[in-house]
TrEMBL record, chain A:
InterPro entries: CYSTATIN_LXN, Cystatin_sf, Latexin. Keywords: Protease inhibitor, Repeat, Signal. PROSITE patterns: CYSTATIN_LXN. GO terms for molecular function: metalloendopeptidase inhibitor activity. GO terms for cellular component: extracellular space. It comes from Equus caballus. It comes from the Eukaryota. Residues 40-145, 165-268 form the Cystatin LXN-type domain. Residues 1-34 form the signal peptide. This is Retinoic acid receptor responder 1. Belongs to the protease inhibitor I47 (latexin) family.
């Protein structure tokens, strides 16, 4: 069982750690006051349950966050099934979701049956991105095996010819050349950070295609990887190109910088969106 | 000339298992009657094994002859000794044969029948249209091709009609590829078409359906978009219509139907992927189907196929309110999904568009339902996001196979529940 970890520090908008503590107080305050109009201000009744979409939304946010934080391209997880969950929404339309879900390996091998179980608490600040995530998962892969796989991937990356100009991964037919598979997995790892950051109560993302690996050198032994990824946002059906720059070395924290093109400005974005982060190596002092 | 070579030589090769390594074809120019006679003398020498393609006739007419390798020296010396001019037309017959064999195989990669068509790969618009013609040619009694209109850029909009007769029988409508980037849908449509002709007369269920109902299948519902996904942008979704006053191209054909048109759940911005278009039915690809369905007047089920998400949906998308037939549609969806999952364990969710996926206005099945077509469903095929639109070709057939089981459930239900 991995110890619970608070979300990592990052520059930019203030971390919701304080509001997370304040939330129960807020809810108590709301419940104590006169009942506001509409069902959304109160807790959902147990017999109706939260909208099924909300639980999946929370699971996806938790998984992107988990994948980024784990920093291991060979141990990426995808959602298998949501098992149970409940949600609370307050007067400010901020939403807390507690849920249990199962995952499987992104690149599962033949006959591999493991379904890692996870529990998470996800806090959505109405339409704002960067949901706060607290997630714990049963270990899906033995630690030594994971380190070996990461190292193998690292060596494969270093051996690849560079640059991979004009290459689309996968190609139009959905095919990824086995030699390019490590590129895709590392890109997915970096994109997980971006997708977590951009996820809101209503928006969720998938990685559609790597449309170009621009520049890629190895520096101090680390892999310095610059690429463009096309993200597919589901509710608007938009394709969003993001330029991502990541630095990775097995066992070391992942650093990600990105710059996405917002084709249609949502409520508060100005046209482009940037962000960066470093995954922590140890428990931070929250 | 080349074709003659193939025919004559290949026949020889097939029958006698010869090879033509080192054989040459000479073109002989005879200047006078005497020279014609000399060449005729050559013809009589059987041991040379000469093969005259164009025999000696009169002065001025070229004489073409294939000369086996062992005889080449002898023939050339003979001609030179008598001052008869010649040129080497083909230096080495075998290598030419090899090249042409390659070309023929390449041509054969273009299927010559729906039995050697490759269902496990994605195809171009041309290849799918060729497939349609082949299928009709092979099954003229069961299948016909209708053109219901032309796309914005002038491509024909083809619908396959599967019918065992009758006059304007109750029918089922199926469309795939309305969103061009959802490639597994057009690919599945091709597979369904073949499946129907294979199973009619063999499988009791589909035979019963076709003995009473007709099936209309539009495989490439958005050909302009589809061509664009091949030529320029694999992730193009919309039509390719031009909007005056905007640099952006295309409208979302599944927000353009006259059901809650323009309400929340579509965009009014031409640059958006869910741009509803300037008015309901402004997209000719949509209008063509609307006109067809209205003129037909006897459509009993309407099924639109999309990807991805693994969902089976019924109306409404434009509003939360349940349709009057909600309970029944939910039951049908439930059994269709059970049938689908039974094959490979692929999990599907089902429910109304609004509650299961998102609010979407102007969608095809909302319109169809409001027209009185009770059994209106929309599919979202594999997968759930790992590959998304770029589903590996290896999954085409499994996807089509499992989806077919769900479709069959709906077809049978429609047959057994006339209204």
């Amino acid at each position: 069982m991995q110890p619970r970890r608070p979300p990592p520090p990052a520059p930019g908008p203030p971390r919701p750690a304080a509001p997370l503590l304040a939330l129960p107080l807020l809810l108590l305050a709301v419940q104590g006051a006169a009942a506001p109009a509409g069902p959304e201000a109160a807790e959902w009744r147990p017999d109706t349950g939260p909208p099924h979409g909300l639980l999946r939304q929370a699971a996806r946010a938790a998984l992107h966050f988990l994948n980024f934080r784990a920093g291991s391209p060979s141990a990426l997880r995808v959602l298998a099934a949501v098992q149970e969950g409940r949600a609370r929404i307050n007067a400010k339309k901020e939403c807390t979701v507690d849920l249990v879900f199962t995952t499987e390996r992104y690149n599962s091998e033949e006959g591999e049956e493991s379904l890692g179980k996870c529990s998470a608490r996800v806090f959505f600040r109405n339409r704002k991105p960067r949901p706060a995530v607290n997630v714990t998962c049963a270990r899906l892969m033995e630690k030594t095996k994971r380190q070996q796989e990461d190292y193998r991937l690292y060596k494969q990356m270093k051996q690849l010819r560079n640059p991979l100009d004009g290459v689309s991964i996968p190609d139009s037919h959905g095919h990824i050349d086995p030699s390019l598979r490590p590129v895709w997995e590392l890109a997915f790892l970096g994109s997980s950070y971006v997708m977590w950051e951009k996820t809101t109560r209503f928006l969720h993302y998938y990685m559609a295609q790597l449309s170009g690996v621009k520049q890629w050198e190895t520096n101090d032994g680390a892999i310095d990887f610059d690429y463009t990824v096309l993200l597919h946002e589901f509710s608007t059906q938009e394709i969003i190109p993001c330029r991502i720059h990541l630095v990775w070395s097995p066992g070391k924290p992942l650093t990600v910088k990105y710059h996405c093109q917002e084709l249609l400005a949502p409520e508060d974005a100005s046209g482009t969106e940037e962000g960066s982060a470093v995954a922590p190596t140890e428990l931070s002092n929250f | 000339m080349q074709r003659l070579l193939i025919l004559s030589v290949l026949l020889g090769a097939v029958l006698g298992k010869e090879d033509f390594v080192g054989h040459q074809v000479l073109r002989i120019s005879v200047a006078d009657e005497a020279q014609v006679q000399k060449v005729k003398e050559l013809e009589d020498l059987e041991h040379l094994q000469l093969d005259f393609w164009r025999g000696p006739a009169q002065p001025g007419s070229p004489i073409d002859v294939r000369v086996p390798f062992p005889s080449i020296q002898a023939v050339k010396i003979f001609l030179e000794a008598h001052g008869i001019e010649y040129t080497i037309m083909i230096e080495d017959v075998q290598s030419l044969l090899d090249k042409e064999q390659e070309q023929m195989l390449a041509f054969q990669a273009r299927a010559s029948s729906t039995d050697n068509f490759n269902y496990a790969t994605y195809h171009s618009l041309e290849e799918i249209y060729d497939f349609i013609d082949l299928l009709v040619a092979e099954n003229p009694k069961l299948v016909s091709k209708l053109q219901i209109g032309s796309s914005y850029e002038g491509r024909p909009l083809y619908v396959l009609k599967f019918s065992t007769g009758g006059k304007n029988r109750p029918a089922i409508w199926i469309d795939t590829g309305i969103h061009s980037r959802e490639w597994v849908t057009q690919a599945s449509g091709v597979w369904f078409a073949k499946k129907i002709v294979q199973d009619y007369g063999q499988d009791p269920a589909i035979t019963a359906v076709l003995d009473s109902l007709d099936i209309f299948l539009e495989i490439v519902t958005n050909p302009d978009g589809f061509a664009y996904t091949h030529s320029t942008n694999r992730l193009w979704r919309k039509t390719r219509s031009r909007t005056s006053g905007s640099l952006c191209v295309g409208a979302d054909p599944n927000r353009n139907w006259d059901a809650g048109f323009g309400l929340a759940g579509a965009s009014s911005s031409p640059c958006s992927e869910t741009y509803h278009g300037k008015s309901a039915n402004s997209e000719v690809e949509v209008k063509s189907i609307v006109d067809f369905v209205k003129d037909h007047g006897n459509i009993k089920a309407f099924i639109s196929i999309h990807s991805y998400s693994q969902l089976l949906l019924y109306p409404y998308g434009y509003k939360k309110a349940a349709v009057a037939d909600q309970k029944e549609l939910d039951e049908v969806a439930k059994s269709a999904v059970a049938a689908l999952t039974s094959l490979y364990g692929t999990k599907f969710q089902y429910g109304s568009i609004y509650t299961t996926i998102y609010q979407a206005s102007g969608s095809s099945i909302d319109w169809a339902y409001n027209q009185g077509i009770k059994y209106s469903f929309s599919f979202e095929l594999r997968d759930t996001g790992s590959n998304g639109f770029l589903l590996p070709a290896s999954q085409i057939i499994p996807t089509a196979e499992e989806t077919w089981l769900a479709l069959q459930t709906i077809l049978e239900y429609t047959l057994n529940h006339p209204y």
